[in-house]
Every structure is written in C-alpha cells, then in structure tokens.
Design a protein that fits this description.
Blueprint: H1 2-20, H2 30-33, H3 88-92, H4 96-103, H5 150-153, H6 160-165, H7 208-211
C-alpha cells in the first residue's frame, strides 16, 4: 500500500513538472488567458496559432499556421554601438511577423475557427510589457547574422560555441547557415515554465540570459 502511494506521488510530481513547462496554463494558453470569450468560446488551446487542416501555405516558418502574420515590421532598433545590423527585409524573414500577429496589439483571430463556433477575443487585454506594436525601435534587435565568428565582429559578444554550448540553451538558438537571431532565439513560445518567464529559453536570474551572449 505504501509502495503504491509513493508511486502515485511520483507520478503526480512528474506530471506537475511537465505541465509547468507546457503551453497549457501559460500566458500563451489563450483559453486560460481569457481570449476565448463569448458564446462561441473554445477550449482548444492550439487553435489560436495552429490548425490540423487548411493551414496558411504562405507561412513557411511555422507548421500549419492558423493566424494572420503582420505584413511587415516597422522601425528597427538602432544604435551607434551596434556592430551587427539588419534590414526590415531581414527581420521580416524571421519569426517576428508571426509573433506580431498578436503582439502588435491586435489580438490575432484564427483563420480556421474551432468546431464549437466563432470566437470573440475582444475582451482580452494584453499586458503593456507584451504589447510591442510593429515599431521595434525600443526592442532588442533581431534579424542580424552572427556568422561563425561573432566575436571577431564585436569583441563584446561571446564566441558562437560558447553561446550554444555553455549557456543552457541545449540547442542552437540561432537559425540558418548565417546564424540569424530570431525572437525564438531567446523565447520558447510553448514553454510556460514560471521559472523562465516570459517564455525565456533559460532563466535570466543575475542577467544570465543577457550574459550568455554579451560580455559584461
């Protein structure tokens, strides 16, 4: 009897840790966050971004995408101390347009509605910190190609192998042959672990996330 209780307790513990690192119950669980409101409210967590049928073929950066990406980002961050730069076209080629489907302030409406009927997300309120708009001039730059030797271009950036292998990312956080920085370099949109909020790939305690790339 005691053995059964211990096994049950372990099972609950494992399930709890898995749930903590899940989109379910996180800020990206739109049902939990109150986006699915009104008579046609849905309990389908994934439907706000993905659909099993009829995904948007024009969006190749995300599987079976079910939302409307913004047409383009706006003004980009710029600084006289930046050694890496990106154009609007380069940023548009990242996942930024997908993220801004909601984070531009206009709550994204799924293209394919759930079987339960139409949804009305107008009552949802996005926190000021999450409201980026399409003006990215006051946000961390993305779209830059770090290449294979970023420290050779900017001595304040750590070597690529150090960033990838010694920070806890557990995978290459950059994209493409040129090692391009995306939104998902720092954020894992499906991971709702409260220890790494807001959806950070690793904890930023002691600015660890920042110092994973920047020598400070």
């Amino acid at each position: 009897m005691k053995k059964i209780s211990i096994i049950a307790l372990l099972a609950v513990s494992v399930a709890t840790s898995v749930m903590a690192a899940s989109v379910v119950g996180s800020r990206h669980d739109m049902v939990f966050s109150g986006f699915a409101v009104g008579a046609g409210g849905s309990t389908e967590v994934c439907i706000f971004c993905h659909t099993p049928h009829g995904g948007q073929t024009s969006v190749t950066l995300a599987p079976l995408w079910n939302n409307t990406a913004v047409a383009s980002v706006g003004t980009l961050y710029n600084s006289t101390t930046m050694n890496f730069t990106a154009t609007v076209e380069q940023v548009n080629a990242t996942d930024a347009r997908l993220c801004l489907a909601c984070h531009d302030g206009g709550v994204g409406m799924p293209v394919n509605q759930p079987n339960s009927g139409d949804m009305d997300p107008t009552a949802a309120v996005m926190s000021p910190n999450a409201l980026l708009t399409t003006d990215l001039s006051n946000d961390h730059p993305i779209g830059m190609d770090l290449g294979l030797n970023p420290e050779g271009i900017d001595p304040g950036i750590r070597p690529l192998a150090t960033i990838i292998g010694a920070t806890g990312f557990n995978e290459n956080p950059f994209y493409g042959a040129a090692n391009t920085m995306w939104c998902s370099t720092c954020h894992d949109v499906h991971d709702g672990d409260p220890l790494t909020a807001p959806f950070l790939r690793i904890s930023n305690a002691g600015s660890a996330m920042c110092k994973a790339c920047h020598i400070k």
